[in-house]
Fold each of these.
Amino acid sequence: MRVSVLGMGRMGRALAGRLLDTGHAVTVWNRTAARATPLLHRGASLAPSPADAAAAGDQAVLVSLADEEAVRQTVLGDSGVISSLPDTAVVVDMSTVGPAMSREEEAAIPGGRFLAAPIAGAPAAVESGQAVLIVGGGRSWVDVLEGLFDDLAGGYMYAGEDPGAALILKLLNNYLLMSGIAVLGEVVAAAEGTGLDPSVIHTYLSSSPLVAPALHNRLEDILHGDHEGWFSVTLGEKDVRLAIEVAVGAGIDFAIAESVASRYRAAGEAGLGEKDIAAVVELARHRPH
Ligand SMILES: NC(=O)c1ccc[n+]([C@@H]2O[C@H](COP(=O)([O-])OP(=O)(O)OC[C@H]3O[C@@H](n4cnc5c(N)ncnc54)[C@H](OP(=O)(O)O)[C@@H]3O)[C@@H](O)[C@H]2O)c1
């Protein structure tokens, strides 16, 4: 399949790499072109603009961008994806944005040829085909792209005709992750601060059923890592903020989430915005760096 991928951040590069590994013809675009270089060495073509990238993806145009502002400019802007989308192509936005943004994209794209497909999983999981895709939007577009989703992730979870439904699930999923990491960081810092033997802390938390499986791949980093990781504090804070908007919009009292969001916001203000979300532990240790 001829597929374009817009956005060559950590996740976009993993998506493009997986598509190349599974035999697709891939065109990539990134605002900062140099970030696409590793993919060009693996066989991808570089498009000079979002419009050119869209024109090259005659079956699927995948989008993986930081936030709503980036999606608005790149997909809906004057020289964005919608200005030159082939009438055979479906736009698949894999960015984590708010549900309203995804509905706006669906409404703006000719023929409503749009799916939201946020990803639950790290870039490494995408590269190995292990990530979970949560897909929302018209069932007929899902049927067209089923083979692509199989190649990317061995399948998908369908959230329904409303693309926003996929984003609601994704945002709540990430609130679980972000709150879990923040609490684990406090537990580690408190255990260290009271003088417990680091090897005892490690042994206990490594085997505790109270540490969720999805937190284990960050335990070493929280205990003694450099927080280089794969998902930034800035993006984590964005996801909790969007989850709060969704929940509060539904009339839910989301008080704990406010606290979690303020933790990631404070980590960003302390200069940790580009570090992995595991870096929130440094606030609890009182030594931001
Ligand atoms: N990393 C993960 O583990 C993970 C997991 C699941 C979902 N996600 C989601 O996937 C999306 C991408 O995440 P990532 O980790 O790849 O982020 P990232 O490494 O920080 O990359 C962000 C991407 O967005 C682009 N961008 C930012 N602002 C832009 C603008 N105004 N106009 C055009 N492009 C812009 C960046 O371009 P430049 O290179 O030019 O800055 C880059 O391509 C996010 O929505 C994130 O929440 C990430």
Note: The pocket of NAP is lined by residues 7-12, 30-32, 35, 64-66, 69-70, 73-74, 95-96, 119, 122-123, 230-232, 235 (CB under 6 Å).
Amino acid sequence: MSHKYEADALRKRALIHLSHAYPTTLDEWDHLPDELPWDGEALEIAAVARQLGADWILPTSFYRICQRSFDRAIITGDELSDADKVNCIKGLRYLETTGATNVLDFLLAPYSNCSTRARCMESRQTIRREVETERRKYDAERFTEMPLELFLEDPAANVCVDCFSKMKEVHEDARKELWDDLPRIFGLDDWKKLEAMKAEALK
Ligand SMILES: [Zn+2]
């Protein structure tokens, strides 16, 4: 076996392995096991993805960086280029503000098909207030919960069945929208281009 062939085969195997842990669809993301290989090494993963030209790994590895790295590690580390450091910090700011607010909107929206509107609305507002109380406790030494992970478990809401199913739907739609937007949030090409790139590299 030639050296070139071996290197290509190895590269492809590494890419396939990485692509499982850093998927391009929300469904795959939601079904990842709790423990991932190289967990907590998102900065190194993003650097490797850049080196290998595996851009489809970047949206989720940048997302993981935002989840598990403090600003100082992103800024002072030598894993990322200056441009990618800016992409990460810009993305992080967006996720913590607009991104989180959009995902939490299901706790504010009035749902018209409801016969106990006042009670349901009050219950949603109570939960929203609790969430905002948590969000007020900013701590630079603690990781913020990222919007895709907010309310993955059903909220303990005292609402009617109609409101409950509508809330779940609005929440899931907002997560989906955020996922679709993830590459743009980090200054990357859209999923369609990234997935075409992935298909080409892994064929
Ligand atoms: Zn209701």
Note: The chain has nine helices and no strands.
